[in-house]
Design a protein that fits this description.
The chain has 443 residues and is an alpha+beta fold. It has two domains: 164 residues, FAD/NAD(P)-binding domain (3-Layer(bba) Sandwich); 170 residues, Cholesterol Oxidase, domain 2. It contains nine helices and 23 strands. The strands form eight sheets. Strands 5-15-16-17-14-20 form a six-stranded antiparallel beta sheet. A three-stranded mixed beta sheet has the order 2-3-21, with no helix packed on it.
């Protein structure tokens, strides 16, 4: 198993702290998909991948989404009945569960606002072992069951050779299999293999494949969940240093849009308040503040292209008029919900926008968000190598094999055909297990 990033042992840094950004995020988290505006996104670069930096919120793929993939992309083996054992096995392996006791107060604010408005809210399970003392709001602390705590140790115990700080640059077909050209701290080299699984994420996987001469439907359909944020200040303290990520989401308007509570540590709060320089001093009240988001299912319109002489690819992604209207609607609804939950001040991610202190102020949010002033980000990227039997639109077959390339597979978020409208890690794990068993002839 090759990994460009380092192998950081579990607990090597503070969760969602500055050191974690520097150690485990590609480019320290400063990645742009170029467009109007540029969309900031986050990629992991460490052993364990995105599971080491994300929130651990877990969803199964909605049945309607699986059916859409079956019909539109001709994907085989993805009915809810066929996917059930893969979801169940992964849930057991990473201890997916709900909170045993009180949920975080910042999270309960979402639920409180939704109940006041008659909207549907729910607690989302996480892959966490709740084994610590409760925080100030009664929320029990726990240990996230990321890949370096679960599947990676299992793999190395079974004989897997782990090679961190080694970058796969390109893949070459040979008469007997494949050669992977790599570069690490010891220099350049070649690894020979009968079969290769490319699992570098929705950006780096198509970049490697295109750099290796594979281009048909590869890197032409990047999708994401475009997200805008709001910083909310309450009278009571809703935040503390070990809070982690709250667990409620509002699904009243899903799948098109969802609301949730984001990472709210002081560094992330400071970043979120950068759109409001006149109020940056408010971050001193960080225990009373939390970051919330409105997320939409964006179109699969992104393009990923390798550039000669550059390690990282060029990513382009643009939102259309309907997307900007949906983001505006989502932002307005989110602000209404937070006001119903008792928020005193709201700071939306629109540069220079006035703060919102009452429902009458919601008129200040335009019907279509201004692209030149709106900060859009995402942590969910997929669909850059969609799977299925439709050669017209798919890069790989239903089980991840690159079309017309025996022994070359994709097995990560790139496979996901369309934006699922939910956190994608559960989908990625279940598909990876399904595809691995198919490769071994055990499905």
């Amino acid at each position: 198993m090759l990994e460009e990033g380092a192998h950081w042992p579990p607990g090597s840094d503070q969760l969602f702290g500055i050191d974690e950004m520097a150690q485990k995020y590609r480019c320290g988290g400063l990645n742009p998909a170029l467009g109007k505006p540029a969309v900031a996104f986050v990629e992991a670069k460490c052993v364990g991948g995105g599971s080491e930096i994300n929130s651990g919120l877990y969803h199964r793929t909605p049945d309607a989404v699986l059916e859409q993939w079956r019909q539109d992309y001709e994907v085989q083996g993805v009915s809810p009945k066929e996917m059930e054992p893969h979801f169940a096995a992964c849930e057991t392996a990473v201890s997916v569960c709900r909170t045993p006791g009180l949920t975080p107060l910042a999270s309960r604010k979402l639920e409180e606002g939704a109940n006041h408005l008659g909207w549907r809210a729910m607690e989302i399970p996480r892959w966490v072992r709740y084994d610590g003392a409760p925080g100030p709001d009664g929320y029990p602390s726990g240990t996230r069951q990321s890949m370096t705590r679960t599947f990676v140790p299992r793999a190395t115990a079974a004989g897997c050779r782990l090679a961190p700080r080694v970058r796969a640059q390109r893949i070459e077909k040979t008469s007997g299999g494949w050669k992977v050209h790599v570069k690490g701290e010891a220099g350049a080299g070649v690894i020979r293999a009968n079969a290769v699984f490319v699992c570098a994420g929705a950006v780096q996987t198509p970049a490697i494949l295109r750099h290796s001469g594979f281009s048909r439907n590869i890197g032409d359909s990047l999708a994401m969940h475009p997200t805008v944020k709001v910083v909310a200040r309450f009278d009571e303290e809703v935040n503390y240093a070990q809070l982690g990520v709250p667990v409620h989401q509002v699904k009243e308007f899903s799948p098109r849009m969802s609301f949730g509570c984001s990472i709210s540590s002081p560094p992330y709060l400071a970043l979120a308040m950068a759109d409001h320089p006149d109020y940056e001093g408010e971050v001193r009240r960080w225990p009373q503040m939390a970051v919330y988001y409105a997320m939409i299912t964006g179109p699969a319109v992104g393009r990923i292209r390798s550039l000669p002489g550059c390690d990282d690819p060029l990513i382009r992604y643009s939102l259309g008029p309907a997307d900007w209207r949906d983001l505006a609607t989502g932002l307005r609804r989110l602000c209404k919900l937070l006001l119903a939950a008792g928020a005193r001040e709201l700071y939306p991610s629109i540069r220079g926008a006035p703060r919102i202190c009452s429902e009458e102020d919601l008129i200040r949010i335009p019907a279509t968000l201004p692209p030149e002033r709106t900060s859009v980000m995402t942590i969910h990227l997929f669909s850059s190598c969609p799977m299925g039997e439709s050669r017209r639109r798919c890069a790989v077959d239903s089980y991840g094999r690159v079309h017309e390339a025996q022994g070359l597979f994709v097995n990560d978020a790139s496979l996901i055909c369309t934006a699922p409208g939910v956190n994608p890690q559960g989908t990625v794990m279940a598909l990876a297990r399904r595809n691995a068993l198919h490769f071994l002839g055990r499905d």
